[in-house]
Write a structure and sequence with these properties.
Mean pLDDT of chain B: 87
Strand content of chain B: under 5%
Number of strands of chain B: 0
Number of helices of chain B: 8
Distance between the termini of chain A: 27 Å
Radius of gyration of chain A: 13 Å
Radius of gyration of chain B: 18 Å
Shape of chain A: globular
Largest sheet of chain B: none
Largest interface: A-B, 34 and 41 residues
Low-confidence stretches of chain B: none
Distance between the termini of chain B: 39 Å
Order of helices and strands of chain A: HHH
Number of strands of chain A: 0
Number of helices of chain A: 3
Mean pLDDT of chain A: 78
Order of helices and strands of chain B: HHHHHHHH
Largest sheet of chain A: none
Helix content of chain A: 55-70%
Shape of chain B: elongated
Oligomer: heterodimer
Strand content of chain A: under 5%
């Protein structure tokens, strides 16, 4: 089982924020959510770091 | 009146939700039996906060509730805050990551082409939007 200590500091920050936002409900990264994340961050077009 | 020291803890609420979601598939008694509780009322007692979920029951409870064991372990450890053993587990093994969380991280890695992106203002806003904050 993976644990937080194996992540980079940036990944830990993402995870902390995700847990915070979801109120620790462990939300699934559904297609809709992932698409929304990519769209809002315009990742597909810019291909730059978030 | 019965004492309910663990009522409304995230674990109690989560188990209540999962039992409800699994209702069409299995009864609470079946769940208790799958977990290995000799007392079939144990699930009720955990749900209403009369009893807490023992850490050694987390794997079988996660299987019975068909949920992520890492997530359930986190909630169980949270419920046991103040419990020296639980604190020691977190200190030694760290906080486990759930399958869903790993899925998010993989998406982030893929979307950023493994550039280990910082959590800047824009993705924060995106996540807030996704979770309706």
């Amino acid at each position: 089982m993976d644990n937080v200590e194996n992540l980079t500091p940036n990944e830990r920050a993402w995870l902390r924020f995700l847990r915070d936002m979801s109120k620790e409900t462990d939300p699934a990264p559904t297609l809709r959510r992932v698409q929304l994340l990519r769209r809002i961050c315009a990742l597909k077009d810019s291909k730059v770091a978030l | 009146m019965t004492k309910k020291p663990h009522a409304d803890t995230p674990l109690a609420l989560y188990i209540e939700r999962r039992v409800l979601e699994l209702k069409p598939k299995k009864s609470q008694g079946q769940i208790a039996s799958e977990v290995g509780f000799p007392n079939p009322n144990m699930v009720t007692m955990i749900k209403n906060g009369t009893s807490k979920l023992a850490l050694d029951r987390v794997p079988s409870m996660a299987r019975a509730l068909e949920c992520d064991p890492a997530y359930l372990m986190r909630l169980a450890m949270e419920q046991a805050v103040g419990d020296t053993a639980a604190q020691a587990i977190v200190e030694i093994y760290g906080t486990p990551i759930t399958v869903n969380e790993l899925g998010w991280l993989e998406e982030i890695r893929d979307a950023s082409h493994n550039t280990d992106p910082r959590l800047t203002k824009r993705p924060r806003a995106a996540l807030r939007t996704i979770f309706g904050k």
